[in-house]
Amino acid sequence: MSMFSIFGVSGSAVSAQSQRLNVVASNLANADAVAGPDGQTYKARHILFQTVPMGSDGSAGVKVQNIVESDAPGRRVHNPTHPSADAEGYVTHANVNPVEEMVNMISASRSYQNNVEVMNTAKSLLLKTLQMGQ
């Protein structure tokens, strides 16, 4: 593995964590949603990552394999006056757990920051190596 492949690995991880942050932001934005334009309740989404093993071209890293919807049931709140209430007076909200999403956001943000730091360190090492040759 060459020193330059570190940029490919960390770059792919930064891209994947960026997508994860976007999904978390979408989940948090819809945490209190009742029903979308299609009449269905919003379902929380989660990212599935896949490692990319080192190939003959030296590329390795991580990529987003899929974005899946959660199968957890929606949160039911008794509010018979709400226009979306069912026959029993319950309104089904999105199945997003804001606390879980905030933890997921912190984790993705730290992973993003760590990968940026890896790229900065690799850049510094390469610059020091070039300076040694002068």
Produce a short descriptive summary.
This protein has helices at residues 5-29, 98-132; strands spanning 45-52, 61-69, 75-78, 90-93.
Descriptive report:
The chain has 134 residues and is of the alpha+beta class. The protein has one domain. It is built from two helices and four strands; from the N terminus they run H-E-E-E-E-H. The strands form two sheets. Strands 1-2 form a two-stranded antiparallel ribbon. A two-stranded antiparallel sheet has the order 3-4. Helix 1 (5-29) runs antiparallel to helix 2 (98-132). The two termini are 25 Å apart. The model has no long low-confidence stretch (mean pLDDT 88). Keywords: Bacterial flagellum, Cell projection, Cilium, Flagellum.
Q: Nearest-angstrom radius of gyration?
A: 21 Å
Average predicted confidence as pLDDT = 88
- How are the strands ordered across the major sheet? 1-2
Label the overall shape.
Answer: elongated
The percent of residues in helical segments reads: 40-55%
Q: What's the main sheet like?
A: 2 strands, antiparallel
- The beta-strand count equals 4
Uncertain residue segments = none
The fraction of residues in strands falls at: 15-25%
* N-to-C span: 25 Å
What is the ordering of alpha helices and beta strands? HEEEEH
Helical stretch count?
A: 2
Structural class: alpha+beta
Count of folded domains: 1
